[in-house]
Amino acid sequence: MSGVKITASAGGGSTELQGPANTGNNTVLKLPSTIVADQFLTTDSSGAMSWAEAGGGKILQLQYATTTTGQKTHTADIWEARTPTVSITPSSTTSKILIQHYAHGIVYYCNHAELKLSRKVGTGSYTDLTGLSGYGNAYDWTSINWSYTFVDDSWYGGSGAIEELTYQTSQWTDQNPTYAHYNYGGQGAASQSNKAIMIAMEIGA
Asked: What is the pLDDT of residues 155-190, one digit of tens each?
């Protein structure tokens, strides 16, 4: 087996690049003309090598938003948008977006207090991504942990440019809507604001 041996400038050691043990093919690998930090070498079918971002589950970017503002529903049986919202512009059409959301709340005598997660592409309309999350039939002050972990793998429509994605939660209450408090802490009175957070992470394919 033949190879190319490169001797170290000091220390007496060497590094050797060896060919395959047995092949009838002639393979040519063409190195890139520049060096790019924190990337790896990849090659196409003709042997031309280039630098690329690592994929396979690597976090490519993270965006998040928080709020300490307590929010209440005002009208029964109507979805009302909640903050925070978070926006992210993916770097690749093959990426997945991992959404994590948490907000504490308290409700009193509500016959349902629900939350849902929605997504908007560019300047379009919001599309629901999840089912309902919340409590029902709360006849005394009751605490709620409104939380989501959701993987959005269908955000790209299959054509056109990549657009900014915006994620939002909305709240719905049936009966006594003014006693459904989003982003409040404590139990027994809606007097303590909490910190709601929404995180968007782009995960490489």
From this structure: 998 888 999 999 999 998 887 777 888 888 665 554
In this structure, the chain runs to a length of 205
Same domain, 90 and 7: no
In the chain, the number of structural domains is 2
Considering the domain architecture, whether residues 43 and 63 belong to the same structural domain is answered as no
DSSP 44-113: -TT-BEEEE---SS-EEEEEEEEE---EE--STT--EEEEEEEEE--S-TT-EEEEEEEEEEEESSBS-E
How far is 103 from 145, CA to CA, in rounded Å?
6
Residue 152, domain extent: 59-203
CB 155 within 8 A of CB 163: no
Residue 49 has pLDDT above 90, yes or no: no
